[in-house]
Design brief:
The chain is built from eight helices and 14 strands. By secondary structure, the protein is an alpha/beta fold. It starts with 7 loop residues before the first strand and ends with a strand.
Length: 260
């Protein structure tokens, strides 16, 4: 089959904040909603490019997200940061590891240190537990790197005091868990056609953009279309919130697919 180096297919594997929606035991109307778009697993996206599959973040819902999306091969996992809702599914790379061998992971050195602490057995070099998966570690800095032949540009931001990475692939960019992004980093987003950015809720939050901040950020970047993710139940019902957004801004939802 002819390769097309300009086409990306994006699948939103999860669009919820750290507890997911519904929250266990919650009586909040959004948690009780029967609309499938109000049910959000922890944030992650699958990016398909030619025959390659890349996943951004690997949270506690990773196993179910792989089953639900039908993804049967992973060429790399790229981490934004080390919070639990973004990393705790790493053990579930086992079925991929058994079939493919070591799984490539890409992360900042601080994130790698945290992964080594949480999943010591995955990184162990001696007395390895039989059946433990193993990874091929790629340390990333704030400069472009390649996934196969696809260039990835990290976008550095702050999640309160923690540095996090968003990523640009061709004309698509994915940023989550951002609270502040410098003008210099925003420059790297110029010309993106599709921007995904986090919007937690209406009220301000110390480490995430609220809706107003996310819309302001979109206004600065000026993509053709923007999708909001890492959503809390406190943002409201999917269908109602979406009606209030500018024409080129949408709420992402689990299972949404985009091609560009
Ligand atoms: Zn998060």
């Amino acid at each position: 089959m002819a390769k097309n180096y300009h086409i990306l297919k994006i699948t939103f594997l999860g669009t919820g904040t750290s507890q997911g929606i519904p929250i266990i035991g919650s009586d909040h109307p959004v948690c009780k909603s029967s609309n499938p778009k109000d049910k959000r697993l922890r944030v992650s996206v699958l990016i398909e490019w030619n025959d390659f599959n890349y996943v951004i973040d690997c949270g506690p819902d990773f196993r179910y997200q792989m089953l639900r999306s039908g993804c049967t091969k992973i060429d790399a996992i790229i981490f934004t940061h080390e919070h639990s809702d973004h990393v705790m599914g790493l053990d579930d790379i086992r079925p991929f590891y058994f079939k493919q061998g070591d799984i490539s992971i890409f992360a900042h050195k601080r994130v790698l240190k945290s992964l080594k602490k949480r999943f010591d057995y995955i990184f162990a070099t001696k007395n390895r537990y039989p059946g433990a998966p193993s990874v091929h570690v790629n340390r990333i800095k704030n400069k472009p790197f390649k996934l196969n032949d696809l260039e990835v540009v990290p976008i550095k931001g702050k999640h309160a005091d923690l540095q996090v990475f968003g990523f640009r692939f061709l004309d698509f960019a994915y940023l989550t868990d951002m609270k502040t992004v410098s003008d210099k980093e925003i420059e790297k987003l110029k010309g993106v056609k599709i921007l995904v950015v986090n919007a937690l809720r209406t009220q301000p939050h110390h480490s995430h953009f609220n809706l107003e901040e996310a819309l302001g950020f979109i206004e600065q970047v000026k993509p053709e279309k923007a999708y909001l993710t890492h959503i809390s139940h406190l943002l409201g019902f999917h269908d109602e919130v979406e009606k209030t957004l500018p024409n080129h801004v949408f709420l992402a939802y689990d299972g949404l697919q985009l091609t560009l």
